[in-house]
Design goal:
Blueprint lengths: L1 H18 L8 H14 L41 E2 H18 L7 H20 L4 E6 L2 H4 L15 E5 L5 H17 L5 H20 L4 H5 L14 H15 L2 H9 L15 H13 L7 H14 L9 E2 L5 E2 L6 H21 L3 E3 L2 E3 L1 H15 L24 H4 L14 H7 L30 H4 L3 H17 L3
Antiparallel strand pairs: 1-2, 2-3, 4-5, 6-7
Length: 488
């Protein structure tokens, strides 16, 4: 009888563990390593000798020449061959924040995380310092580029150069660039002090430019920015975000005073390359919860208002979930919002844990674990714990998207097919092909399923099958966090 009771107790424990995902955890460590590797597939410029995704080759080596400057390097933002600095700078900021918050949990992968940051920050430095009075914000005509389906190594489209200046302002892209440079300066503060100092001094100048000459970059650039990466949310959020990062990097009261003068009090239930309010508030709430400085309590309250808009069951929730439990914000590239919000959930959970802090959404008590487990459910879904049992990370698990909307992945590599494939030739031979992509873009997280948990593995359906740097950039932190908590 005693042994039967013990067996029953063990069985109940096992069921509870499986329900909580303890025994059924995805391999977060593997996913983390692969999510970093993805950035090598997005590199533009001359590739280093330690490049691991060897189906990629050098590309964009004349970028900037139309403006007589060197703008080689950086990342292609998604499945195309254009470099948009607005999402690229956000990606760099999120890679840096991930490294700052979770670097101690990254183990042997920390140098690879720093390398991913540096590939972005090196390029952003060029864009900010090559011509006095100008901030370069993009390379490649997006309208022309999108009419071609060709490898980055074959690019023969015009590599137009776009910039903002005092007469054509771009406070949003400048504020985000300042945030990226400031955050990266913290990543390299101990590892490369001289580089860190250059990053920080440049960040200060770029933010000052953003503050002094105010305007939306999409108003200045027109069809070069819209409809691709329009600044829909305006630029106040980027000024808040940039100043929050410079305050973290400098502790200069100037930035503290500026933050409080902005009056950015709108509520939000999103966090993305375009809308930084929630991220800035979580970053500033750290000063209250971790540093015990109550001068920033308004930002803590705003961060918690954001969490209440996300949490299912909260009386103020404005967030839709699919039947399978995935956060669903927008139909196009929805997983970008899932990874970004999951980052804020794990990071705020960490701050709450340090402070022994809880808060309320109406009558609902929110603990550190409340946020952590919601983030875990989202990451688990991406890695295959979903109705289709499909991993939305390429190269992870046995079932993942095979026909992603990505030029370099869908066309044969330069090594296997050294002959040029023309702008239009790529469409008939490869874009519309029903064959799997010949090159595995390891670690790429695609746009994801629809609101009913359905996913058609279709290269022509870019809304769901296209990967992007800003999807992965925000996933790095939660993956590193869960890898350290649930290591195999």
């Amino acid at each position: 009888m005693g042994s039967r009771a013990s067996y029953l107790s063990l069985a109940i424990t096992l069921l509870l563990c499986i329900g909580d995902g303890v025994l059924a955890n995805p391999n977060y460590g593997e996913a983390f390593v692969k999510s970093l590797l993805f950035f090598q597939g997005q590199r533009s410029g001359r590739l280093p000798t330690n490049q691991l995704l060897t189906w990629r080759s050098n590309s964009g080596l004349s970028d900037g020449s139309l403006a007589h400057v060197d703008l080689t390097g950086g990342y292609y933002d998604a499945g195309d061959n254009v470099k948009f600095n607005f999402p690229m700078a956000f990606t760099t900021t999120m890679l840096s924040w991930s490294t700052l918050e979770y670097g101690r949990r990254m183990g042997s992968q920390l140098p690879n995380a720093r390398a991913a940051v540096r590939w972005g920050s090196d390029y952003l430095l060029k864009c900010a310092t090559r011509t006095p009075g100008k901030l370069y914000v993009g390379v490649g005509d997006p309208n022309v580029d999108h009419s071609c389906w060709e490898r980055p190594e074959d690019m023969d489209t015009v590599r137009s150069v776009y910039s903002v200046s005092a007469s054509n302002p771009g406070s949003d892209v400048a504020g985000e660039t300042a945030a990226a440079l400031a955050a990266a300066s913290l990543v390299f503060r101990a590892a490369d002090r001289n580089y860190s100092r250059v990053l920080l001094s440049t960040a200060k100048k770029v933010l000052q430019f953003a503050i002094q000459y105010r305007g939306k970059y999409s108003d200045s650039l027109g069809s070069a920015a819209c409809p691709f990466y329009c600044s829909y949310s305006g630029y106040t959020d980027e000024l808040l975000w940039g100043a929050a990062w410079l305050y973290r990097a400098t502790n200069d009261p100037y930035y503290a005073n500026f933050l409080k003068s902005l009056g950015a009090n709108d509520g939000t239930d999103i966090f993305s390359w375009d809308d930084k309010l929630a991220g800035a508030r979580v970053l500033l709430a750290r000063r209250v919860l971790v540093d015990k400085d109550n001068n920033y309590d308004q930002f803590r309250q705003q961060a918690e208002d954001f969490m209440c808009r996300i949490l299912p069951g909260s009386p103020s929730s404005s967030t839709q979930y699919t039947p399978g439990g995935l956060m669903f914000k927008l139909s196009e590239a929805n997983l970008q919002y899932v990874t970004s919000i999951s980052f804020l959930l794990t990071t705020y959970s960490k701050y709450m844990s340090v402070a022994g802090h809880t808060f309320n959404c109406g009558n609902m008590v929110v603990t550190s674990n409340t946020l952590k487990y919601l983030a875990k459910k989202q990451i688990d879904y991406i890695l295959g714990v979903n109705p289709l049992k499909m991993s939305y990370m390429v190269g992870y698990s046995t079932k993942f998207p095979q026909k992603i909307h990505h030029r370099g992945s869908s066309l044969p590599s330069f090594a296997s097919h050294p002959q040029s494939i023309g702008c239009q030739a790529g469409f008939s031979a490869y874009y519309y092909s029903s064959n799997p992509n010949p090159n595995i873009l390891t670690g790429a997280i695609v746009g994801g399923p629809d609101q009913n948990d359905q996913f058609s593995d279709d290269r022509t359906d870019y809304s769901h099958s296209e990967p992007a740097t800003y999807i992965n950039g925000a996933a790095i932190g939660p993956l590193a966090y869960f890898a350290s908590l649930y290591s195999k």
